[in-house]
Amino acid sequence: MSGHSKWAGIKHKKAIVDAKRGQAFTKVARELSVAAREGGPDPASNFRLRLAMQKAREVNMPADNIERAVQRGAGGKEGAQLEEIRYEGYGPHGVAVMVDVLSDNRNRTVAAIRNLFTRSGGSLGETNSVGWMFTQQGVIRVSAGASDPDELALRLLEIVDVGSDGDISVDDDAVVVTVDPGNFEAARTAIEDAGLSVETGEVTMNPSTSVPLDAKQAVAVLCLLDALEEDDDVQQVYANAEIPDDVLESVG
């Protein structure tokens, strides 16, 4: 399995293990506010806001909460106070890590992120120290349900034009579709119009290569990733770790 699809599966399984609804609501609300601030409150003309609203629905955020977060951003309140920053560095065992944050205090946030990297045995790096290993891509995870995943993958090849840089691969009981960010919405719409179940869909940063880890190494890396995701300012964490399934299943 290609590295980016492997990481998509890891993120999905971690989301199940780490599900903390209150914190998820906070992070999604921040993204909604900033998206509305940057591109306006109308999702029809604001791609970033459409993605944020979809994420909000995936974590079962109530419609009233979504609307309030959008209006805060459109009104220049919470959204105006938040700064978007990306941090890059190396975690344990040479794993490349990127961290996207929304912060109202840059000094506080960078100190917290640097401390987490250092405590893990890693180090915070300069801009693009690891970013060159990642590519922005749209990733859609489609549930196979009662169907055979390999047969579903063949069907998706007929439904979705993944382009020259895209990919369709089987991951356990689902199929992961990877497309260029510009084709993300068209791909998702085509999948849903075919009556298939989309588990998750996002535009994310996927690694071009991955670092295979044994069980002991994987636990050390997961500790760093979990600690980063626990920080209230952190929106997204990306890594090029290849973590054994049994380790993911044992974490909880």
UniProtKB/TrEMBL annotation:
<dbReference type="GO" id="GO:0005829">
    <property type="term" value="C:cytosol"/>
</dbReference>
<dbReference type="InterPro" id="IPR049083">
    <property type="entry name" value="TACO1_YebC_N"/>
</dbReference>
<keyword id="KW-0963">Cytoplasm</keyword>
<dbReference type="Pfam" id="PF20772">
    <property type="entry name" value="TACO1_YebC_N"/>
</dbReference>
<dbReference type="GO" id="GO:0003677">
    <property type="term" value="F:DNA binding"/>
</dbReference>
<dbReference type="InterPro" id="IPR029072">
    <property type="entry name" value="YebC-like"/>
</dbReference>
<feature type="domain" description="TACO1/YebC-like N-terminal">
    <location>
        <begin position="5"/>
        <end position="75"/>
    </location>
</feature>
<keyword id="KW-0805">Transcription regulation</keyword>
<keyword id="KW-0238">DNA-binding</keyword>
<dbReference type="GO" id="GO:0006355">
    <property type="term" value="P:regulation of DNA-templated transcription"/>
</dbReference>
<dbReference type="InterPro" id="IPR048300">
    <property type="entry name" value="TACO1_YebC-like_2nd/3rd_dom"/>
</dbReference>
<dbReference type="InterPro" id="IPR002876">
    <property type="entry name" value="Transcrip_reg_TACO1-like"/>
</dbReference>
<comment type="similarity">
    <text>Belongs to the TACO1 family.</text>
</comment>
<dbReference type="Pfam" id="PF01709">
    <property type="entry name" value="Transcrip_reg"/>
</dbReference>
<protein>
    <recommendedName>
        <fullName>Probable transcriptional regulatory protein JF886_06380</fullName>
    </recommendedName>
</protein>
<dbReference type="InterPro" id="IPR017856">
    <property type="entry name" value="Integrase-like_N"/>
</dbReference>
<feature type="domain" description="TACO1/YebC-like second and third">
    <location>
        <begin position="82"/>
        <end position="241"/>
    </location>
</feature>
<dbReference type="InterPro" id="IPR026564">
    <property type="entry name" value="Transcrip_reg_TACO1-like_dom3"/>
</dbReference>
<keyword id="KW-0804">Transcription</keyword>
